[in-house]
Amino acid sequence: MINWKKDYETGITQIDDQHKKLLEIAGSALTLLKNDLYIDKYDEIIAILEELKDYTIYHFNSEEEYMLSVGYKKFLSHKVEHVAFIEKINNIDLNNLDRNQDKALLGILEFVINWIDDHILKKDKLIAG
């Protein structure tokens, strides 16, 4: 399981709760990756990607509204990172994912976990001041 770390706390309950949900989605991807009972995981991977994309868009919108409401000065550079994340998810090669499901899922999972870890610790924590 992918665990929440105290270091991730921004002190903004709404944002922290949304980050926990993103980690939960990543956790479901990890559970699927470890499940050897599925021969073909494609449909499950697509469902997780859709959930990740939908929830991430919701979270980014919410976080951006918060940043604007408090006059966060690095809003635009922060938003650029959000846009890049969504583009990366949108540009996943579904044919490659279908051919190499576990390898592709592992790559997606590593990207998401590394991004969440880096983004929360280096960018989101700055929002709270």
UniProtKB/TrEMBL annotation:
PROSITE patterns: HEMERYTHRINS. Coiled coil: none annotated. The keyword Transmembrane does not apply. Residues 10-127 form the Hemerythrin-like domain. InterPro entries: Haemerythrin_Fe_BS, Hemerythrin, Hemerythrin-like, Hemerythrin-like_sf, Hemerythrin_metal-bd. Keywords: Iron, Metal-binding. GO terms for molecular function: metal ion binding. PANTHER family: BACTERIOHEMERYTHRIN (PTHR37164:SF1). Belongs to the hemerythrin family. This is Hemerythrin.
